[in-house]
Design brief:
heterodimer; A: 8-stranded antiparallel β-sheet; 27% strand
């Protein structure tokens, strides 16, 4: 599951933008961290980023902007686009739940390092990362 | 789905692993066995306070406006299933010791100590607030808090009931809380994301 990317799309989303997420799985846990991403040109994702900027965060603490073509191997017909990976808006989900969404690809080790570094960059601004998660993210970022 | 829908009602799906992690901490703070009612209300208020501070649920699942007040149905169903198995077969769920309260309700005591390294400080703070709010309340006081138009939770709950919504909107909860506290939470609402 480490680095797997899932499309979060359900009928009720309609035409609203929906994210894809990359999974950061840590051994011994039955849940994982997920970091959402949207195509970089979307209005809503840029509004989310602006809301964080308005709250006083730095851009590098909010999102990792990545050319997915370089870091993601797609299983589907998706083509890699420039995307904002919203590290400040990570969440924790049960692995059994994330498996219910369609897997569309995997992020390579270099991409995962960037995501981990982005999460750690946001860590001083938030109390949302547990000690265990920070320790494992440091290992991932330095590994 | 980013914010923009006023009916955004579930940010992350119900996470049973996190529920158990939180209950281990909450039971220690509560200092007596937790009933099913205690647990579902602690779940609701932990998530409410966590969303109000961070824009993210901790345990997850949509808050539904039941007659009993706001409830995450998957949380209630899981506990109900456990109680049936305990009543019929004497089986206890993994990680919990079950018993009976003075009033005959099934009570839960997590068997493991809370893993504080796995819980974020924001989650501990939200759980502390939930316990401080709910522990002193009688059942009737709790019902008034969740149903009455004088509280932010009651206002959001009643809005969902009046509009025949199956789920309580996070925007309504945030707006009612912001009104009550006289604070601006516009940016928080703008950046809500749903994985559901």
């Amino acid at each position: 599951m480490q680095g797997h990317i899932f499309q979060i799309s359900r009928a009720e989303h309609g035409n609203l933008p929906h994210p894809f997420v990359v999974v950061l799985e840590f051994s011994g846990n039955a849940d994982c961290l997920v970091v959402p991403a949207f195509s970089a040109d979307g209005h809503k994702v840029n509004d989310i980023i602006q809301a964080r900027l308005d709250e006083g965060h730095r851009l590098d603490q909010i999102a990792v902007t990545m050319d997915n073509a370089q870091y993601v191997q797609f299983d589907t017909s998706h083509t890699g686009k420039l995307a904002h990976w919203l590290v400040a808006d990570f969440d924790r989900m049960a692995i059994s739940d994330i498996r219910k969404y369609p897997k569309i690809g995997s992020m390579n080790a270099a991409g995962l390092k960037l995501i981990a570094a982005g999460l750690l960059s946001f860590a001083p601004c938030t109390y949302r990362l547990s000690k265990a998660a920070q320790k494992k993210l440091r290992q991932l970022a330095e590994g | 789905m980013p914010a923009g829908s006023s009916h955004l009602s579930q940010l992350i799906p119900y996470n049973a692993v996190q529920f158990d992690r939180c209950m281990a901490y909450l039971a220690q703070k509560w200092a007596r066995g937790l009933t099913r009612y205690d647990m579902v209300k602690l779940h609701v208020m932990t998530d409410v306070y966590h969303v109000l501070e961070t824009g993210h649920q901790s345990i997850g699942g949509p808050l539904e406006p039941w007659n009993l007040g706001p409830v995450v149905a998957r949380s209630w169903a899981r506990l109900s299933r456990w109680e049936r198995r305990f009543d019929q077969l004497g089986e206890e769920p993994p990680g919990y010791a079950l018993g009976r309260s003075d009033k005959g309700y099934t009570t839960y005591r997590p068997t493991a100590a809370p893993d504080l390294d796995e819980l974020a400080a924001s989650e501990l703070a939200a759980m502390d607030r939930a316990v401080e709010l709910l522990k002193p309340m009688s059942f009737d006081e709790s019902q008034r808090f969740f149903h009455g138009d004088k509280t932010f939770m009651g206002q959001a709950y009643n809005s969902a009931r009046r509009n025949h919504q199956k789920q309580i909107s996070w925007a309504d909860i945030i707006d009612a809380y912001a009104d009550q506290e006289g604070i601006d939470l516009t940016d928080l609402k703008r950046r809500l994301i749903s994985y559901c």
